[in-house]
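Structural prep section.
Before we set up the soaks we want a predicted structure of the protein with magnesium ion in place, mainly to decide which crystallisation condition to try first. Input record follows.
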Amino acid sequence: MAFPSSADRPALTVTSAKIVIAGGFGVGKSTMVASVSEIPPVNTEAWMTQAGESVDPLSDSSAKTTTTVAMDFGRVTLAPDLLLYLFGTPGQPRFWPMWDDLCRGASGAVVLVDTRQLESSFPAVNYFENDSDVPFIVAVNLFDGKLTHSLEKVRDALCLDERTPLVTVDARDRRSTAKTLVTALSHTMKSTPTRA
Amino acid sequence: MTANPWVRPYVLTGGRTQTNHQLYVHTLVSAKHFDARAAAKLSPESRRLYDRVRLGPQSVAELSAHCGISLGVTRVLLEDLASTEHLQIAEGAYDSPFDHRLLKRVIDGLSELG
Ligand SMILES: Nc1nc2c(ncn2[C@@H]2O[C@H](COP(=O)(O)OP(=O)(O)OP(=O)(O)O)[C@@H](O)[C@H]2O)c(=O)[nH]1
Ligand SMILES: [Mg+2]
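Run finished without errors. Recording the tokens verbatim:
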């Protein structure tokens, strides 16, 4: 697609889009971001430490030791004029206030779940169902290559709406991740008017 | 809003939590040209951001992470750098993240990745 060139903004024709990867602690968010990102996962510890200050001062040293990488993001150049950013949401409750900021302007979201600890992803499902306008899908990360619970059971346990796509993914695999992201954006297309 | 380049960012942001542009974490920032003289007059933080943008269009989040400046402060400093024409903040080619033309392009791009 050609963009009309603008005389007063000659340097800037590159567009960015964003997809959010949410889910509980250790479900594979960083792994999924890294599987397609062209930049190494960015360590945002310094950034998060400061950004989190107003929310929850990190004076408590025990809390601090559990903060390794609170959030990460990756980038995929899809075309010379199109960049896709993937943002993993921080799983720890004290960083939840950051979700609004991360999700604002997102084209879609993937809630990643681990069937061995489904409940750790409940807050993420709740968030996208109730507190966000960003359409989301749910993806079961297949840690050992096979599904331990049927998708129907997972859907029931999460009380997922029939219209919310539920898929499986191997978060380590670039192809599988890309396919999941396509599913997320296709869902956004279906859930939003043509002229959004 | 005047941008005094000598004020520390934490002071600078004191009364300012809102920015004029829609500065998402993934909003792209770029520079038309690099003005070394102007750069020399910037605060260390602004200068780090300005230097980094020379590498090419980057997101607000990347700039924040690479320059070691918190997201909130980064946003305010980028606004100031944009208002003094040091930098440009991308308005985005589409009005909405749900614009189907944008979604289609991203889907096509991702499909080629596999
Ligand atoms: N075998 C296997 N291991 C995986 C897979 N996905 C992630 N892991 C491992 O599981 C652990 C947690 O994965 P992460 O990607 O760090 O999970 P996360 O959601 O980013 O975790 P937090 O950011 O700490 O909440 C890591 O040791 C990964 O290497 C997978 O598909 N298969
Ligand atoms: Mg992680």
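Observations: Confidence is low (pLDDT under 50) at residues 1-10, 46-69 of chain A.
Flagged for discussion at group meeting.
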